[in-house]
């Protein structure tokens, strides 16, 4: 049958529209796929060093306080440099910024694997923090722009789920490889170089194939958000004065938002336990678990966190529909509170012996399932609702700046408490069987930096019951006014 006349002409545009829609959906799916791969590698890179703390300690004769210093160095630099991400996304598409940061952390990861002095490791961990400072805020704002308000918690939860899979892979891989040599190279060094190579490949994929959501918005029904950025970059180059003025305007707009101030306040203490947890692998090995058993325990914890972040995101999305003004806050306080009993039971009640393996495993999984909601279900979605879309990268950047720089002190404090208060002696550790006495000392240092901060975090969320609604309404009104002016 041959179609003629007006009937044929009506069908042609529909076919073109369908093809364009299919290409658009394919581009969005490909971008999100590669972004999730980048999140996997980012979390894998974060977990590499803590997974081989024991080997680092033996290679450089370093105790817990020196190991904590390495984590402090990376986190502190990451916190200080995070606002740079908010400035860079004004001048460049986020895929370009993400690729730059990914290649930076890939270089530093390879350099750590090749280092022969403790000071070299510390320097390259600082460079690693600089790369992560660029990547994480841009990654979070990318996801915020890719999902609507009602499902944003699930979007962040899924990102954290796949990222945690990468963290599990990185931690398990490094822990298992640490017990072997590869072509004459210690396994922990080979793991760093291999992970750096994979990260560099992902960085190139991000640069080549990922499309910024703002560009998609600009090509569709509302060009205003993308035009804000385009106006700052002329044909011949970047207007640096306009960029710095826009950065300063965004900074002032973000910092004065009460919801941002409250979430940052809780994050200052709420992030301390998570930074302290980098010692979990060392603690289990001191108890006497071998590399494979320690990796399995940490994998269960990470798996619980991954499932919990997605579950928490879905529950918080549902709660926000039933109680739009405080549903997410309820979820946040529940998750933070659960950190107290689990920390107490894990670190002080369970006998610190290899015979307690299954008790440790069950506790770690349930702990991860319940304490991992805040970032993906509450903080990240709320940030996206209380500022205009063009300021989202800046609000995530400043959140990382404040929380990252403050939480970086947790790791060295755990080491100092373990050594100077509870009597940890790195010279007493047996390379094979560990040391029960030192494991006990480290567990007490960990408990001090976990239970109390979890309680304060739960308390500090309370003012959001009153201020979140007002800040969200103000952001929506501001966005409507900007649209009317264009």
UniProtKB/TrEMBL annotation:
Principal subcellular localisation of the protein: membrane
GO cellular component, one term: membrane
Segments passing through the bilayer: 67-90, 97-116, 122-144, 156-178, 190-211, 262-284, 296-317, 329-350, 356-380, 401-418, 446-468
Protein name: Multidrug resistance protein
Key words of the record: Membrane, Transmembrane, Transmembrane helix, Transport
Subcellular localization(s) per the UniProt record: Membrane
Organism: Actinidia chinensis var. chinensis
One function term, GO molecular function aspect: transmembrane transporter activity
Membrane topology of this protein: Multi-pass membrane protein
Residue ranges constituting the Major facilitator superfamily (MFS) profile domain according to the UniProt record: 31-469
């Amino acid at each position: 049958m041959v179609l003629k006349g007006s009937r044929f002409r009506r069908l042609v545009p529909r076919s073109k529209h369908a093809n364009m829609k299919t290409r658009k959906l394919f581009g969005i799916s490909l971008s999100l796929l590669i972004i999730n791969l980048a999140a996997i590698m980012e979390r894998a890179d974060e977990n590499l060093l803590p997974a081989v703390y024991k080997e680092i300690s033996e290679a450089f004769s370093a105790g817990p306080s020196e190991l904590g210093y390495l984590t402090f160095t990376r986190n502190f630099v990451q916190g200080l440099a995070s606002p740079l991400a908010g400035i860079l996304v004004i001048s460049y598409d986020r895929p370009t910024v993400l690729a730059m940061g990914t290649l930076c952390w890939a270089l530093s990861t390879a350099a750590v694997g090749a280092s022969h002095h403790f000071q070299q490791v510390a320097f390259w961990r600082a460079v690693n923090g600089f790369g992560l400072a660029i990547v994480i805020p841009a990654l979070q704002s990318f996801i915020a722009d890719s999902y609507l308000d009602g499902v944003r918690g699930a979007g962040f939860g899924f990102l954290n789920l796949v990222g945690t899979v990468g963290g599990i892979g990185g931690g398990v891989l490094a822990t298992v490889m640490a017990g072997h040599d590869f072509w004459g190279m210690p396994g922990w060094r080979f793991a760093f170089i291999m992970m750096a190579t994979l990260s560099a490949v992902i960085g190139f994929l991000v640069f080549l194939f990922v499309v910024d959501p703002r560009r998609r918005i600009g090509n569709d029904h509302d060009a205003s958000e993308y035009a804000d950025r385009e106006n700052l970059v002329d044909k011949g180059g970047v207007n640096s004065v306009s960029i710095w003025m826009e950065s300063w305007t965004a900074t002032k707009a973000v910092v004065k938002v009460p919801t941002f101030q409250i979430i940052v306040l809780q994050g200052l203490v709420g992030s301390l336990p998570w930074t302290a947890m980098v010692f979990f692998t060392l603690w289990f090995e001191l108890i006497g678990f071998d590399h494979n058993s320690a990796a399995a325990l940490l994998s269960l914890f990470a798996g619980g966190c991954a499932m919990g972040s997605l579950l928490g995101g879905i529950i918080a999305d549902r709660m926000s529909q039933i109680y739009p003004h405080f549903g997410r806050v309820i979820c946040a306080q529940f998750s933070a509170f659960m950190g107290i009993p689990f920390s107490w039971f894990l670190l002080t009640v369970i006998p610190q012996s290899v015979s307690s393996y299954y008790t440790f495993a069950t506790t770690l999984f349930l702990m991860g399932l319940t304490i991992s909601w805040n970032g993906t279900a509450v903080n990240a979605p709320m940030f996206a609702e209380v500022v205009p879309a063009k300021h989202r990268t800046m609000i995530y950047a400043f959140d990382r700046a404040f929380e990252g720089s403050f939480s970086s002190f947790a790791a060295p404090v755990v080491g100092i408490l373990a050594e100077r208060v509870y009597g940890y002696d790195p010279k007493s550790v047996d390379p094979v069987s560990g040391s029960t006495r030192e494991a006990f000392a480290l567990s007490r240092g960990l408990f001090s930096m976990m239970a109390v901060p979890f309680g304060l975090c739960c308390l500090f969320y309370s003012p959001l019951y009153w201020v979140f609604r007002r800040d969200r309404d103000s952001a929506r009104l501001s966005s409507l006014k900007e649209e009317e002016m264009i």
